[in-house]
Amino acid sequence: MVTDDATREPLLDVKNLVVEYPGRLRRGGFRALHGVSLQIEAGKTLGLVGESGSGKTTIGRAILGLAPVTEGDIRFHGRSIARLSGRRRRALSSDIQVVFQDPYTSLNPAMTVADILTEPLLASGTSRRDANERVRGLLEQVHLPANSGRRYAREFSGGQRQRIAIARALCREPRLIVCDEPVSALDQSTQARVLDLLEEIQQRLGVAMLFVTHDLDVVRHVSHTVAVMRQGRIVESGATSQVISDPAHPYTRALLLAAPIADPKLQRIRRQERRAFLSEQTESITAVR
Ligand SMILES: Nc1ncnc2c1ncn2[C@@H]1O[C@H](COP(=O)(O)OP(=O)(O)OP(=O)(O)O)[C@@H](O)[C@H]1O
Ligand SMILES: [Mg+2]
């Protein structure tokens, strides 16, 4: 289990993060994040929820060094990583990894699974023999058959490809994995199996996760803490059980009421509640104006 007693800081500490994408036609660019702060403890999962376009992926990209940090800071394991040079940022890639939503585009279909998994190891100086040995261990860890290494990524189903993507993320023993909607493209039962796998891996390896999702049921399943985003800001955060059972912000409540449930009768009641809630909101907004 990875602990962080060296610094006593959380593993990841994002402070007042502002991200502005440079604009092409509009001068001054587009501000996607307006001062976001969040923390993730070593070995824990923060679920990031919110409507489409609220800035969830942008936070993940900023942590990975793929989005421009305009203001604020990102501290990882006690060190600022918001503005690292290319070489230093690459050195960090063993510590921070990513699993994307679409397992069909995130893996090179023309590479064998063994090549996909050994590539980052060989690039970081691991010997061929050790890398091959590690691939066997990784396949076992994600519950894929031992002979999967010889097959091409295109020969696997969506769920299996996501297991390969998880194995690739685990290759260099990261401390943090950014999971951006990693189960959204999978059917329900495959989703559950991949989520169980991520949980098992976390318990075994103590890796922390930033888990971006639209689905509050998924959040309930995987995350210790949750942050709710709206329009580039975090409107509420806290322990998952608390935020979900007793949401403080009206937007969180609306999100909870919007989540579909299997029972049609309950679903109907929820829909009515949600409608009532939304019209209340509109009235109060009108009243304030
Ligand atoms: N490269 C970019 N250049 C300009 N604007 C961008 C870029 N990437 C994202 N944006 C804008 O930033 C905002 C936040 O986008 P982001 O992808 O972070 O949202 P999201 O919460 O992940 O949405 P979704 O749930 O749909 O994935 C959006 O308005 C989007 O149009
Ligand atoms: Mg996104």
What does this protein structure show overall?
A hairpin with a 2-residue loop joins strand 4 and strand 5. Among the domains are: 1-95 and 177-183 and 212-245, Rossmann fold (3-Layer(aba) Sandwich); 259-289, no CATH class. The strands form two sheets. A six-stranded mixed sheet has the order 6-7-8-3-9-10, with helices on both faces. The chain has a four-stranded antiparallel sheet with strand order 2-1-4-5, covered by helices on one side. It starts with 11 loop residues before the first strand and ends with a helix. The longest helix has 25 residues, at 264-288. Helix 3 packs across helix 4 and helix 9 packs antiparallel against helix 10 (264-288). The protein has 289 residues and is an alpha/beta fold. The chain has helices spanning 56-63, 86-91, 113-123, 128-141, 158-170, 188-205, 216-222, 240-245, 250-258, 264-288; strands spanning 12-21, 30-40, 45-50, 69-76, 79-80, 96-99, 176-180, 208-212, 225-230, 233-239. The protein contains ten helices and ten strands. Bound molecules: adenosine-5'-triphosphate and magnesium ion. The site of adenosine-5'-triphosphate (ATP) has 11 residues, from strand 2 and helix 1. Adenosine-5'-triphosphate (ATP) is lined by residues 21, 30, 32, 50, 52-58.
